[in-house]
Design goal:
The protein has 222 residues and is of the alpha+beta class. It has 2 domains: 75 residues, OB fold (Dihydrolipoamide Acetyltransferase, E2P) (Beta Barrel), CATH 2.40.50; 104 residues, AF1531-like domain (DNA polymerase, domain 1, Orthogonal Bundle), CATH 1.10.150. A 5-stranded antiparallel β-sheet has the order 4-1-2-3-5. A two-stranded parallel sheet has the order 6-7. Helix 2 packs across helix 6. The chain starts with 12 loop residues before the first strand and ends with a helix.
C-alpha cells in the first residue's frame, strides 16, 4: 500500500517583523550569524519565518513580502521559528503588524463573529477572545441573530466589543506564542496538543465566495 505524500509547507506571502542586514550573532542558524535575513509572519497560517536575504537589500517593518514567486531581494532558503526565536524588535512589532493585516482584511475577519460556533457545551469560540465572558458573548450572539455584523464599527456599536481589531490580534499573538488548548486562527506548533479549529480556512472560503458573487453581479450589470 502506497503512503500518501506529505505536502510540504510553503509560505506564499508574509509581513516583515525585523530585518537584520548584518545578521545576528545570537541566531541559532549558522548562516544567519553574519548574513542578512528577515524575520517575518506568514499571512496564511501565521507561522513565524526567517528568510535569507541578499546583500544590499532593504526591508521595512510591516512591509508585505511575496514568497511565491520569490521576492528578488530574498534567497530561496527559510526556516520555521518559534516566538522565542524572534528578536526583541520583532516581538514588539508583532501586534502592530497583525493589526495592520487584520485592518486590511476587515470584512473577512468580521465574518468570524457571524460564523463562530460553540466548541463544547460550555465554551464558545468567541469566548477565546480576550475580555469576552458569558454576558458579553450573549450580547454578540443576540446582535448577530438580528443582523450579521458588517464592520468593526458595527461590532462596537451592536456587539459592545471595544477595539475588535486589537482583540483579534491579541488572540493571534497568544496562539503564536503557543501553549493554547484551542487555536482559532494560527496553526499550532508541531509539538502542540492543542485543537486546531482553523477558522482562517472558512473565512477565506467565504471571502472567495463573496468575491465571486461580486464579479458575477458586475458582469450582469454590464
Amino acid at each position: 500500500m502506497r503512503r500518501a505524500r506529505r505536502r510540504l509547507y510553503r509560505p506564499r506571502s508574509g509581513r516583515v517583523l525585523d530585518f537584520l542586514p548584518s545578521g545576528n550573532p545570537l541566531d541559532k542558524h549558522p548562516d544567519h550569524k553574519s548574513r542578512p535575513f528577515i524575520q517575518a509572519l506568514d499571512e496564511g497560517k501565521f507561522k513565524l519565518l526567517e528568510f535569507n536575504a541578499k546583500y544590499g537589500s532593504s526591508f521595512s517593518i510591516g512591509e508585505k513580502v511575496i514568497f511565491m514567486p520569490l521576492d528578488q531581494r530574498l534567497l530561496n532558503k527559510y526556516y520555521l521559528i518559534a516566538y522565542e526565536d524572534l528578536t526583541k524588535v520583532a516581538q514588539d512589532a508583532l501586534l502592530d503588524v497583525l493589526m495592520q493585516m487584520i485592518n486590511e482584511m476587515e470584512k473577512m475577519f468580521v465574518q468570524f463573529f457571524n460564523i463562530a460556533e460553540p466548541i463544547t457545551l460550555r465554551l464558545h469560540a468567541i469566548e477565546l477572545l480576550p475580555g469576552i465572558g458569558k454576558r458579553h458573548l450573549q450580547q454578540i450572539l443576540q446582535a448577530r441573530k438580528q443582523k450579521p455584523f458588517e464592520s468593526f464599527e458595527d461590532l462596537e456599536k451592536r456587539g459592545g466589543l471595544k477595539n475588535p481589531l486589537k482583540v483579534i490580534a491579541e488572540r493571534i499573538v497568544k496562539e503564536i506564542q503557543g501553549g493554547e488548548k484551542y487555536y482559532l486562527f494560527a496553526e499550532p506548533p508541531p509539538d502542540s496538543r492543542g485543537l486546531y479549529l482553523n477558522y482562517m480556512a472558512r473565512l477565506r472560503a467565504l471571502a472567495s465566495v463573496d468575491k465571486g458573487s461580486a464579479s458575477e453581479s458586475g458582469s450582469e450589470a454590464q
